[in-house]
Amino acid sequence: MASSTVPSAESSPKVLSGCPCPHLQSFKQQGGLRDFSVAQKFLIKQRDGLGKKRLLASSCIGCKAATDYHDESFGAKLFVCVQCVFVGCWQVGGGHIKQHFKDKNHCLAIETSRGEVYCSHCQDFVYDQDFDRNTQEVFDNHQQVKAKKRKIAEEQCGPRVEFVTSTSAVWQADGTSKTVLEHLKCPSADKPKFIGMRGLNNMGNTCFMNCILQALVHNPFLRNFFLTEQHIQSQCLVVKGTRPPQSPASSKLTDAMDVTCNNGNGNGKETACLGCEMDSLLSHMYSGNGQPYTPYSFLYSMWQYADHLAGYKMQDAHEFFISTLNGLHQHTCEDPALRDCRCIVHKIFSGLLRSDVRCTQCGHTSTAYDPFLDISLDIKDGTTESPNSKPVTLEQCLLRFTGEERLESFRCSSCAVEKSAVKQLSMQKLPLVFCFHLKRFEHNLNNKKVLTRTKVEDFVKFPAHSLDMSPFLAHRNVKDPTAAGNGSLHPQHYDLFAVVNHYGSIDHGHYTCYIVQGESNWFKCDDAWITHVDASEVLESEGYLLFYVKRDLLYASSVTTS
What we know:
The chain has about 550 residues and is α+β, with helices and mostly antiparallel strands. It is about 30% helix and about 20% strand. It is built from 16 helices and 21 strands. The strands form 5 sheets. Strands 8, 12, 16, 17, 18, 19, 20 and 21 form an 8-stranded mixed beta sheet that branches. Strands 2-1-3-4-5 form a 5-stranded antiparallel beta sheet, covered by helices on one side. A hairpin with a 4-residue loop joins β17 (about 495-505) and β18 (about 510-515). α2 (about 30-45) crosses α5 (about 130-155), α7 crosses α13 and α11 runs antiparallel to α12. It is globular and about 100 Å long. It starts with about 20 loop residues before the first helix and ends in a 12-residue tail after the last strand.
Protein backbone atom coordinates (compact mmCIF):
# COMPACT_ATOMS: atom_id res chain seq x y z
CA MET A 1 0.00 0.00 0.00
CA ALA A 2 1.13 3.50 -0.71
CA SER A 3 0.76 4.66 2.86
CA SER A 4 3.60 2.48 4.02
CA THR A 5 5.97 3.72 1.36
CA VAL A 6 5.25 7.40 0.75
CA PRO A 7 6.67 9.95 3.22
CA SER A 8 3.93 11.46 5.31
CA ALA A 9 2.80 15.03 4.98
CA GLU A 10 3.98 15.74 8.50
CA SER A 11 7.59 15.01 7.53
CA SER A 12 7.43 17.24 4.43
CA PRO A 13 4.44 19.59 4.73
CA LYS A 14 5.41 21.87 1.88
CA VAL A 15 5.73 19.33 -0.90
CA LEU A 16 2.10 18.30 -1.21
CA SER A 17 -0.57 20.81 -2.11
CA GLY A 18 -3.97 19.38 -2.88
CA CYS A 19 -4.76 16.50 -5.18
CA PRO A 20 -2.55 16.24 -8.29
CA CYS A 21 -5.31 14.45 -10.24
CA PRO A 22 -8.46 16.53 -10.92
CA HIS A 23 -10.46 13.41 -11.79
CA LEU A 24 -9.66 11.78 -8.44
CA GLN A 25 -10.53 15.04 -6.69
CA SER A 26 -13.89 15.22 -8.46
CA PHE A 27 -14.60 11.58 -7.61
CA LYS A 28 -13.80 12.26 -3.96
CA GLN A 29 -16.15 15.26 -3.83
CA GLN A 30 -18.95 13.04 -5.12
CA GLY A 31 -18.57 10.62 -2.21
CA GLY A 32 -16.01 8.41 -3.88
CA LEU A 33 -14.20 7.61 -0.62
CA ARG A 34 -17.08 5.34 0.37
CA ASP A 35 -16.92 3.35 -2.88
CA PHE A 36 -13.14 3.28 -2.66
CA SER A 37 -13.34 1.88 0.89
CA VAL A 38 -15.69 -0.90 -0.21
CA ALA A 39 -13.36 -1.88 -3.05
CA GLN A 40 -10.31 -1.89 -0.77
CA LYS A 41 -12.07 -4.06 1.84
CA PHE A 42 -12.95 -6.54 -0.87
CA LEU A 43 -9.40 -6.63 -2.26
CA ILE A 44 -7.76 -7.05 1.15
CA LYS A 45 -9.99 -10.03 1.90
CA GLN A 46 -9.11 -11.57 -1.46
CA ARG A 47 -5.37 -11.20 -0.81
CA ASP A 48 -5.73 -13.04 2.49
CA GLY A 49 -7.90 -15.73 0.91
CA LEU A 50 -10.83 -14.82 3.15
CA GLY A 51 -13.17 -13.71 0.41
CA LYS A 52 -16.16 -15.92 -0.34
CA LYS A 53 -15.87 -15.17 -4.05
CA ARG A 54 -12.14 -15.19 -4.62
CA LEU A 55 -12.60 -16.08 -8.28
CA LEU A 56 -14.20 -12.69 -8.90
CA ALA A 57 -11.07 -10.75 -7.99
CA SER A 58 -8.59 -13.22 -9.42
CA SER A 59 -9.85 -13.26 -13.00
CA CYS A 60 -10.95 -10.80 -15.65
CA ILE A 61 -14.69 -10.61 -16.25
CA GLY A 62 -14.04 -10.15 -19.97
CA CYS A 63 -11.61 -12.98 -20.69
CA LYS A 64 -11.33 -14.89 -17.38
CA ALA A 65 -7.57 -14.34 -17.43
CA ALA A 66 -6.54 -15.49 -13.99
CA THR A 67 -3.56 -14.06 -12.17
CA ASP A 68 -2.09 -14.71 -8.77
CA TYR A 69 -1.66 -11.82 -6.37
CA HIS A 70 1.88 -12.96 -5.66
CA ASP A 71 2.74 -13.90 -9.23
CA GLU A 72 6.23 -12.67 -10.19
CA SER A 73 5.97 -13.57 -13.86
CA PHE A 74 5.47 -11.08 -16.67
CA GLY A 75 1.87 -11.06 -17.76
CA ALA A 76 -1.56 -9.49 -17.42
CA LYS A 77 -2.48 -7.37 -14.42
CA LEU A 78 -5.95 -6.94 -12.97
CA PHE A 79 -7.77 -3.73 -12.10
CA VAL A 80 -11.00 -3.14 -10.18
CA CYS A 81 -13.00 -0.14 -11.30
CA VAL A 82 -13.91 1.95 -8.25
CA GLN A 83 -16.88 3.49 -10.06
CA CYS A 84 -18.62 0.14 -10.58
CA VAL A 85 -17.96 -3.57 -9.94
CA PHE A 86 -16.01 -4.40 -13.10
CA VAL A 87 -12.78 -6.42 -12.85
CA GLY A 88 -10.65 -6.27 -15.98
CA CYS A 89 -7.20 -7.17 -17.23
CA TRP A 90 -4.51 -4.84 -18.49
CA GLN A 91 -2.25 -6.37 -21.10
CA VAL A 92 0.36 -5.12 -23.51
CA GLY A 93 -1.48 -3.54 -26.41
CA GLY A 94 -4.93 -3.78 -24.88
CA GLY A 95 -6.99 -5.18 -22.04
CA HIS A 96 -10.62 -5.28 -20.93
CA ILE A 97 -10.20 -2.59 -18.28
CA LYS A 98 -9.10 -0.16 -21.02
CA GLN A 99 -12.15 -1.04 -23.08
CA HIS A 100 -14.31 -0.65 -19.98
CA PHE A 101 -12.96 2.87 -19.49
CA LYS A 102 -14.01 3.76 -23.04
CA ASP A 103 -17.43 2.08 -22.92
CA LYS A 104 -18.54 3.38 -19.50
CA ASN A 105 -16.60 6.66 -19.49
CA HIS A 106 -14.98 5.62 -16.21
CA CYS A 107 -11.39 6.53 -15.44
CA LEU A 108 -10.39 5.30 -11.95
CA ALA A 109 -9.38 1.76 -11.00
CA ILE A 110 -7.39 -0.02 -8.29
CA GLU A 111 -4.50 -2.32 -9.24
CA THR A 112 -5.30 -5.52 -7.36
CA SER A 113 -1.83 -6.58 -6.23
CA ARG A 114 -0.73 -3.30 -4.63
CA GLY A 115 -3.92 -1.30 -4.16
CA GLU A 116 -2.69 1.71 -6.16
CA VAL A 117 -5.15 4.03 -7.93
CA TYR A 118 -4.79 4.45 -11.69
CA CYS A 119 -6.38 7.29 -13.70
CA SER A 120 -6.92 6.58 -17.39
CA HIS A 121 -7.29 10.27 -18.23
CA CYS A 122 -3.95 11.17 -16.62
CA GLN A 123 -2.48 7.88 -17.92
CA ASP A 124 -0.64 7.31 -14.66
CA PHE A 125 -1.00 6.13 -11.09
CA VAL A 126 -2.22 8.98 -8.91
CA TYR A 127 -1.87 9.79 -5.23
CA ASP A 128 -4.15 11.47 -2.71
CA GLN A 129 -3.71 11.73 1.05
CA ASP A 130 -7.36 10.99 1.86
CA PHE A 131 -7.43 7.85 -0.27
CA ASP A 132 -4.08 6.76 1.14
CA ARG A 133 -5.30 7.31 4.69
CA ASN A 134 -8.50 5.42 3.86
CA THR A 135 -6.47 2.46 2.58
CA GLN A 136 -4.43 2.36 5.77
CA GLU A 137 -7.56 2.51 7.94
CA VAL A 138 -9.18 -0.34 6.02
CA PHE A 139 -6.02 -2.43 6.36
CA ASP A 140 -5.69 -1.69 10.11
CA ASN A 141 -9.33 -2.58 10.74
CA HIS A 142 -8.91 -5.79 8.79
CA GLN A 143 -5.83 -6.72 10.83
CA GLN A 144 -7.74 -6.06 14.04
CA VAL A 145 -10.58 -8.31 12.89
CA LYS A 146 -8.10 -11.08 12.04
CA ALA A 147 -6.44 -10.75 15.43
CA LYS A 148 -9.79 -11.00 17.22
CA LYS A 149 -10.79 -14.10 15.24
CA ARG A 150 -7.42 -15.72 15.97
CA LYS A 151 -7.79 -14.97 19.68
CA ILE A 152 -11.30 -16.46 19.78
CA ALA A 153 -10.09 -19.55 17.91
CA GLU A 154 -7.21 -20.04 20.37
CA GLU A 155 -9.54 -19.69 23.36
CA GLN A 156 -11.89 -22.32 21.95
CA CYS A 157 -9.39 -24.73 20.41
CA GLY A 158 -6.14 -23.92 22.16
CA PRO A 159 -2.96 -22.44 20.68
CA ARG A 160 -1.61 -23.54 17.34
CA VAL A 161 0.50 -26.69 17.32
CA GLU A 162 3.94 -26.30 15.80
CA PHE A 163 4.45 -29.51 13.84
CA VAL A 164 8.00 -28.69 12.75
CA THR A 165 10.40 -28.35 15.67
CA SER A 166 14.10 -28.73 16.25
CA THR A 167 13.56 -32.30 17.49
CA SER A 168 11.45 -33.39 14.53
CA ALA A 169 12.84 -36.22 12.47
CA VAL A 170 14.29 -35.24 9.10
CA TRP A 171 12.78 -37.09 6.15
CA GLN A 172 15.25 -39.31 4.31
CA ALA A 173 14.59 -40.28 0.72
CA ASP A 174 14.60 -44.00 -0.03
CA GLY A 175 15.92 -45.55 -3.23
CA THR A 176 12.74 -45.01 -5.25
CA SER A 177 12.36 -41.42 -4.07
CA LYS A 178 15.98 -40.67 -4.91
CA THR A 179 15.47 -41.95 -8.45
CA VAL A 180 12.37 -39.81 -8.89
CA LEU A 181 14.10 -36.72 -7.51
CA GLU A 182 17.14 -37.21 -9.74
CA HIS A 183 14.96 -37.29 -12.86
CA LEU A 184 12.57 -34.60 -11.66
CA LYS A 185 12.76 -31.53 -13.85
CA CYS A 186 11.67 -28.18 -12.51
CA PRO A 187 9.13 -26.56 -14.90
CA SER A 188 10.98 -23.25 -14.68
CA ALA A 189 14.48 -24.70 -15.06
CA ASP A 190 14.63 -23.84 -18.76
CA LYS A 191 13.47 -20.26 -18.20
CA PRO A 192 16.36 -17.78 -18.14
CA LYS A 193 16.76 -15.82 -14.92
CA PHE A 194 17.23 -12.10 -15.42
CA ILE A 195 18.48 -10.86 -12.09
CA GLY A 196 18.02 -7.13 -11.74
CA MET A 197 14.81 -6.98 -13.77
CA ARG A 198 12.54 -5.77 -10.98
CA GLY A 199 9.63 -3.39 -11.28
CA LEU A 200 9.41 -0.10 -9.40
CA ASN A 201 6.12 0.92 -7.84
CA ASN A 202 4.62 4.23 -8.90
CA MET A 203 4.08 6.45 -5.86
CA GLY A 204 1.98 9.01 -7.70
CA ASN A 205 3.29 10.53 -10.96
CA THR A 206 6.77 9.10 -10.32
CA CYS A 207 7.09 7.22 -13.61
CA PHE A 208 9.74 9.74 -14.71
CA MET A 209 11.91 8.72 -11.74
CA ASN A 210 11.34 4.98 -12.21
CA CYS A 211 12.57 5.14 -15.81
CA ILE A 212 15.76 7.00 -14.91
CA LEU A 213 16.46 4.65 -12.00
CA GLN A 214 16.05 1.62 -14.29
CA ALA A 215 18.51 3.15 -16.78
CA LEU A 216 21.03 3.89 -14.00
CA VAL A 217 20.63 0.51 -12.30
CA HIS A 218 21.37 -1.30 -15.57
CA ASN A 219 24.31 0.91 -16.47
CA PRO A 220 27.10 -1.72 -16.28
CA PHE A 221 29.76 0.67 -14.94
CA LEU A 222 27.53 2.24 -12.29
CA ARG A 223 26.18 -1.19 -11.30
CA ASN A 224 29.66 -2.67 -10.89
CA PHE A 225 30.84 0.35 -8.90
CA PHE A 226 28.16 0.02 -6.23
CA LEU A 227 27.82 -3.78 -6.16
CA THR A 228 31.58 -4.11 -5.53
CA GLU A 229 31.17 -1.85 -2.45
CA GLN A 230 33.11 1.10 -3.84
CA HIS A 231 30.75 3.33 -1.86
CA ILE A 232 30.10 2.13 1.68
CA GLN A 233 27.70 3.96 3.96
CA SER A 234 29.87 3.43 7.06
CA GLN A 235 32.71 5.23 5.27
CA CYS A 236 30.59 7.86 3.52
CA LEU A 237 31.93 11.40 3.95
CA VAL A 238 28.43 12.85 3.77
CA VAL A 239 27.17 10.57 6.55
CA LYS A 240 30.23 11.29 8.68
CA GLY A 241 30.04 15.01 7.97
CA THR A 242 33.77 15.21 7.13
CA ARG A 243 33.52 16.41 3.53
CA PRO A 244 36.30 18.89 2.61
CA PRO A 245 35.05 22.47 2.11
CA GLN A 246 34.39 23.68 -1.39
CA SER A 247 37.01 25.99 -2.87
CA PRO A 248 36.42 28.83 -5.38
CA ALA A 249 38.34 26.86 -8.01
CA SER A 250 36.14 23.83 -7.63
CA SER A 251 33.08 26.07 -7.69
CA LYS A 252 34.08 27.37 -11.12
CA LEU A 253 34.67 23.83 -12.35
CA THR A 254 31.36 22.48 -11.16
CA ASP A 255 29.50 25.50 -12.47
CA ALA A 256 31.00 24.73 -15.89
CA MET A 257 29.96 21.12 -15.52
CA ASP A 258 26.43 22.22 -14.65
CA VAL A 259 27.04 20.48 -11.32
CA THR A 260 26.69 22.07 -7.91
CA CYS A 261 28.59 21.01 -4.84
CA ASN A 262 25.88 22.46 -2.63
CA ASN A 263 22.52 20.80 -2.53
CA GLY A 264 19.76 21.76 -4.90
CA ASN A 265 18.23 24.09 -2.32
CA GLY A 266 21.28 26.34 -2.47
CA ASN A 267 21.51 26.55 1.32
CA GLY A 268 24.86 24.75 1.51
CA LYS A 269 23.57 22.15 3.97
CA GLU A 270 24.33 18.49 3.39
CA THR A 271 21.37 16.21 2.79
CA ALA A 272 20.91 12.48 2.73
CA CYS A 273 23.64 10.90 0.63
CA LEU A 274 22.42 9.95 -2.85
CA GLY A 275 25.42 7.65 -3.19
CA CYS A 276 24.17 5.63 -0.22
CA GLU A 277 20.65 5.69 -1.67
CA MET A 278 21.91 4.37 -5.01
CA ASP A 279 23.88 1.67 -3.22
CA SER A 280 20.76 0.61 -1.33
CA LEU A 281 18.65 0.68 -4.50
CA LEU A 282 21.07 -1.56 -6.40
CA SER A 283 21.18 -3.99 -3.48
CA HIS A 284 17.39 -4.32 -3.60
CA MET A 285 17.22 -4.54 -7.39
CA TYR A 286 19.83 -7.32 -7.58
CA SER A 287 18.65 -9.22 -4.50
CA GLY A 288 16.85 -11.82 -6.64
CA ASN A 289 13.42 -10.74 -5.33
CA GLY A 290 10.99 -10.46 -8.22
CA GLN A 291 8.35 -8.45 -6.38
CA PRO A 292 8.12 -4.76 -7.36
CA TYR A 293 10.20 -2.46 -5.18
CA THR A 294 9.15 0.96 -3.87
CA PRO A 295 12.06 3.47 -4.03
CA TYR A 296 10.46 5.85 -1.51
CA SER A 297 13.76 6.52 0.25
CA PHE A 298 15.48 7.60 -2.97
CA LEU A 299 12.52 9.83 -3.85
CA TYR A 300 12.52 11.51 -0.45
CA SER A 301 16.29 12.05 -0.58
CA MET A 302 15.91 13.68 -4.00
CA TRP A 303 13.25 15.97 -2.56
CA GLN A 304 15.74 17.03 0.09
CA TYR A 305 18.53 17.51 -2.43
CA ALA A 306 16.53 19.28 -5.15
CA ASP A 307 13.37 20.87 -3.78
CA HIS A 308 12.26 21.98 -7.26
CA LEU A 309 11.53 18.28 -7.90
CA ALA A 310 9.59 17.80 -4.64
CA GLY A 311 5.93 16.84 -4.69
CA TYR A 312 3.74 14.55 -6.76
CA LYS A 313 3.67 16.69 -9.87
CA MET A 314 4.86 15.13 -13.11
CA GLN A 315 8.48 16.10 -13.81
CA ASP A 316 10.68 15.90 -16.86
CA ALA A 317 12.73 12.69 -16.95
CA HIS A 318 15.76 14.44 -18.47
CA GLU A 319 15.76 17.09 -15.74
CA PHE A 320 15.55 14.39 -13.09
CA PHE A 321 18.43 12.52 -14.75
CA ILE A 322 20.71 15.57 -14.66
CA SER A 323 19.74 16.37 -11.05
CA THR A 324 20.50 12.78 -10.04
CA LEU A 325 23.93 12.92 -11.67
CA ASN A 326 24.62 16.23 -9.94
CA GLY A 327 23.67 14.74 -6.58
CA LEU A 328 25.72 11.59 -7.11
CA HIS A 329 28.70 13.73 -8.09
CA GLN A 330 28.37 15.88 -4.99
CA HIS A 331 27.96 12.96 -2.60
CA THR A 332 30.58 10.62 -4.09
CA CYS A 333 33.30 13.14 -4.89
CA GLU A 334 36.04 12.70 -2.28
CA ASP A 335 37.49 16.19 -2.64
CA PRO A 336 35.50 18.95 -4.41
CA ALA A 337 38.71 21.05 -4.56
CA LEU A 338 40.20 18.72 -7.18
CA ARG A 339 39.98 20.31 -10.62
CA ASP A 340 39.90 16.97 -12.44
CA CYS A 341 37.00 15.24 -10.70
CA ARG A 342 37.36 11.47 -10.64
CA CYS A 343 34.02 10.62 -9.09
CA ILE A 344 32.07 7.74 -10.61
CA VAL A 345 29.67 10.11 -12.41
CA HIS A 346 32.45 11.83 -14.34
CA LYS A 347 34.28 8.59 -15.01
CA ILE A 348 31.17 7.23 -16.72
CA PHE A 349 29.28 10.15 -18.27
CA SER A 350 31.81 12.97 -18.64
CA GLY A 351 32.98 13.91 -22.13
CA LEU A 352 34.61 16.97 -23.66
CA LEU A 353 33.29 19.13 -26.50
CA ARG A 354 35.62 21.13 -28.70
CA SER A 355 34.32 24.38 -30.18
CA ASP A 356 36.22 25.91 -33.12
CA VAL A 357 35.27 29.42 -34.30
CA ARG A 358 36.93 30.51 -37.58
CA CYS A 359 36.94 34.12 -38.68
CA THR A 360 35.90 34.55 -42.34
CA GLN A 361 38.01 37.71 -42.61
CA CYS A 362 41.49 36.51 -41.56
CA GLY A 363 40.98 32.76 -41.14
CA HIS A 364 42.02 32.78 -37.47
CA THR A 365 40.53 29.92 -35.44
CA SER A 366 39.87 30.16 -31.72
CA THR A 367 39.26 26.94 -29.79
CA ALA A 368 37.40 26.34 -26.52
CA TYR A 369 36.57 23.19 -24.59
CA ASP A 370 33.38 22.47 -22.69
CA PRO A 371 32.69 19.38 -20.57
CA PHE A 372 29.34 17.61 -20.86
CA LEU A 373 27.37 14.87 -19.14
CA ASP A 374 24.81 14.40 -21.93
CA ILE A 375 24.15 15.60 -25.48
CA SER A 376 20.88 17.37 -26.38
CA LEU A 377 19.99 16.96 -30.06
CA ASP A 378 17.50 18.87 -32.19
CA ILE A 379 15.13 16.60 -34.09
CA LYS A 380 14.10 19.17 -36.68
CA ASP A 381 16.57 21.14 -38.77
CA GLY A 382 14.36 24.22 -38.96
CA THR A 383 13.31 23.71 -42.58
CA THR A 384 9.84 22.91 -43.86
CA GLU A 385 9.70 19.22 -44.56
CA SER A 386 7.31 17.46 -46.91
CA PRO A 387 4.84 14.91 -45.50
CA ASN A 388 6.69 12.14 -47.35
CA SER A 389 10.13 13.02 -46.00
CA LYS A 390 12.30 10.18 -44.76
CA PRO A 391 12.57 9.49 -41.02
CA VAL A 392 15.30 11.34 -39.18
CA THR A 393 18.20 9.21 -37.95
CA LEU A 394 20.30 9.62 -34.84
CA GLU A 395 23.38 9.97 -37.04
CA GLN A 396 21.73 12.87 -38.90
CA CYS A 397 20.98 14.59 -35.60
CA LEU A 398 24.64 14.19 -34.62
CA LEU A 399 25.80 15.53 -37.99
CA ARG A 400 23.66 18.64 -37.49
CA PHE A 401 24.99 18.99 -33.95
CA THR A 402 28.62 18.88 -35.17
CA GLY A 403 27.95 20.73 -38.42
CA GLU A 404 29.06 24.25 -39.25
CA GLU A 405 27.03 27.13 -37.87
CA ARG A 406 27.34 30.67 -39.21
CA LEU A 407 27.74 33.43 -36.62
CA GLU A 408 26.88 37.00 -37.56
CA SER A 409 28.53 40.10 -36.06
CA PHE A 410 31.49 38.19 -34.64
CA ARG A 411 34.49 40.23 -33.49
CA CYS A 412 37.71 38.35 -34.14
CA SER A 413 40.37 38.47 -31.41
CA SER A 414 43.10 38.38 -34.06
CA CYS A 415 42.13 40.96 -36.68
CA ALA A 416 39.67 42.89 -34.45
CA VAL A 417 37.23 43.12 -37.34
CA GLU A 418 33.54 42.56 -36.75
CA LYS A 419 32.68 40.04 -39.38
CA SER A 420 30.84 36.77 -39.72
CA ALA A 421 32.42 33.56 -38.46
CA VAL A 422 31.87 29.82 -38.72
CA LYS A 423 31.47 27.73 -35.58
CA GLN A 424 31.78 23.95 -35.44
CA LEU A 425 31.55 21.48 -32.55
CA SER A 426 33.37 18.17 -32.30
CA MET A 427 34.05 15.53 -29.66
CA GLN A 428 37.43 15.93 -28.00
CA LYS A 429 36.84 13.17 -25.44
CA LEU A 430 34.19 10.44 -25.59
CA PRO A 431 32.53 9.18 -22.40
CA LEU A 432 32.05 5.55 -21.49
CA VAL A 433 28.27 6.05 -21.60
CA PHE A 434 26.45 8.46 -23.89
CA CYS A 435 23.06 9.88 -22.98
CA PHE A 436 21.45 11.42 -26.06
CA HIS A 437 18.56 13.72 -25.20
CA LEU A 438 16.19 14.17 -28.15
CA LYS A 439 14.50 17.56 -27.82
CA ARG A 440 10.86 16.58 -28.02
CA PHE A 441 9.45 19.47 -25.99
CA GLU A 442 9.43 22.87 -27.67
CA HIS A 443 8.52 26.31 -26.32
CA ASN A 444 7.57 28.79 -29.05
CA LEU A 445 5.75 32.11 -29.41
CA ASN A 446 2.56 31.95 -31.45
CA ASN A 447 1.11 34.72 -33.61
CA LYS A 448 -0.29 36.41 -30.51
CA LYS A 449 3.14 36.42 -28.84
CA VAL A 450 1.96 33.86 -26.30
CA LEU A 451 4.39 31.16 -25.21
CA THR A 452 3.11 27.75 -26.25
CA ARG A 453 4.45 24.29 -25.50
CA THR A 454 4.34 21.56 -28.11
CA LYS A 455 5.69 18.04 -28.41
CA VAL A 456 7.76 16.90 -31.38
CA GLU A 457 6.55 13.40 -32.23
CA ASP A 458 8.73 12.84 -35.31
CA PHE A 459 10.19 9.36 -35.46
CA VAL A 460 13.96 9.16 -35.02
CA LYS A 461 15.66 6.00 -36.22
CA PHE A 462 18.46 4.83 -33.91
CA PRO A 463 20.67 1.72 -34.04
CA ALA A 464 20.79 -1.01 -31.40
CA HIS A 465 24.43 -1.86 -32.07
CA SER A 466 27.61 -0.35 -33.50
CA LEU A 467 26.86 3.36 -33.28
CA ASP A 468 30.18 4.73 -34.57
CA MET A 469 31.13 8.03 -32.94
CA SER A 470 34.51 8.38 -34.70
CA PRO A 471 33.15 10.72 -37.46
CA PHE A 472 32.27 13.24 -34.77
CA LEU A 473 35.66 13.27 -33.05
CA ALA A 474 38.10 16.18 -33.20
CA HIS A 475 40.70 15.53 -35.94
CA ARG A 476 43.57 14.96 -33.56
CA ASN A 477 41.78 12.00 -31.99
CA VAL A 478 40.49 10.09 -35.01
CA LYS A 479 43.73 8.30 -35.89
CA ASP A 480 44.02 4.70 -34.86
CA PRO A 481 46.85 4.47 -32.27
CA THR A 482 47.55 0.93 -33.49
CA ALA A 483 47.90 1.95 -37.14
CA ALA A 484 51.39 3.53 -36.82
CA GLY A 485 50.21 6.95 -37.99
CA ASN A 486 48.65 5.83 -41.27
CA GLY A 487 45.71 8.18 -40.69
CA SER A 488 43.02 5.47 -40.71
CA LEU A 489 39.92 6.05 -38.63
CA HIS A 490 39.61 3.95 -35.48
CA PRO A 491 35.92 3.04 -34.99
CA GLN A 492 34.38 4.09 -31.68
CA HIS A 493 31.44 1.72 -31.37
CA TYR A 494 28.64 2.11 -28.85
CA ASP A 495 25.74 -0.26 -28.13
CA LEU A 496 22.25 0.67 -26.94
CA PHE A 497 21.27 -0.56 -23.47
CA ALA A 498 18.37 1.69 -22.37
CA VAL A 499 15.65 3.81 -24.00
CA VAL A 500 13.31 6.17 -22.13
CA ASN A 501 10.05 7.01 -23.93
CA HIS A 502 7.34 9.58 -23.28
CA TYR A 503 3.75 8.87 -24.31
CA GLY A 504 0.88 11.32 -24.41
CA SER A 505 0.79 15.08 -24.53
CA ILE A 506 3.23 17.52 -23.02
CA ASP A 507 0.88 18.15 -20.06
CA HIS A 508 -0.52 14.66 -19.49
CA GLY A 509 1.89 11.89 -20.35
CA HIS A 510 3.57 8.76 -19.10
CA TYR A 511 7.18 7.54 -19.14
CA THR A 512 8.33 3.99 -19.80
CA CYS A 513 11.77 2.48 -20.26
CA TYR A 514 13.32 -0.32 -22.30
CA ILE A 515 16.27 -2.23 -20.82
CA VAL A 516 18.47 -4.86 -22.48
CA GLN A 517 19.81 -7.97 -20.75
CA GLY A 518 22.67 -9.63 -22.58
CA GLU A 519 22.80 -8.85 -26.27
CA SER A 520 19.20 -9.20 -27.40
CA ASN A 521 16.86 -9.74 -24.43
CA TRP A 522 14.84 -6.53 -24.21
CA PHE A 523 12.37 -5.72 -21.45
CA LYS A 524 9.82 -2.96 -21.13
CA CYS A 525 9.79 -1.37 -17.66
CA ASP A 526 6.40 0.24 -17.09
CA ASP A 527 6.62 1.12 -13.39
CA ALA A 528 5.94 -2.14 -11.52
CA TRP A 529 5.34 -4.15 -14.69
CA ILE A 530 8.21 -5.84 -16.52
CA THR A 531 7.41 -7.31 -19.94
CA HIS A 532 9.65 -9.19 -22.36
CA VAL A 533 9.54 -7.53 -25.80
CA ASP A 534 11.15 -7.89 -29.20
CA ALA A 535 14.02 -5.66 -30.23
CA SER A 536 11.88 -4.37 -33.09
CA GLU A 537 9.46 -2.79 -30.60
CA VAL A 538 12.34 -0.92 -29.00
CA LEU A 539 13.74 0.37 -32.29
CA GLU A 540 10.27 1.43 -33.45
CA SER A 541 9.57 3.40 -30.27
CA GLU A 542 9.58 7.18 -30.24
CA GLY A 543 12.72 7.65 -28.11
CA TYR A 544 13.34 10.50 -25.68
CA LEU A 545 16.55 9.52 -23.88
CA LEU A 546 18.94 7.05 -25.53
CA PHE A 547 21.68 5.42 -23.47
CA TYR A 548 24.68 3.90 -25.28
CA VAL A 549 27.65 2.13 -23.68
CA LYS A 550 31.12 1.93 -25.21
CA ARG A 551 31.80 -1.53 -26.61
CA ASP A 552 35.60 -1.68 -26.37
CA LEU A 553 37.68 -0.21 -23.57
CA LEU A 554 41.25 0.90 -24.25
CA TYR A 555 43.23 0.81 -21.02
CA ALA A 556 46.11 3.23 -20.49
CA SER A 557 48.55 0.38 -19.80
CA SER A 558 48.02 -1.01 -23.30
CA VAL A 559 48.91 2.24 -25.09
CA THR A 560 52.59 2.82 -25.85
CA THR A 561 53.77 6.40 -25.62
CA SER A 562 56.86 7.76 -27.34
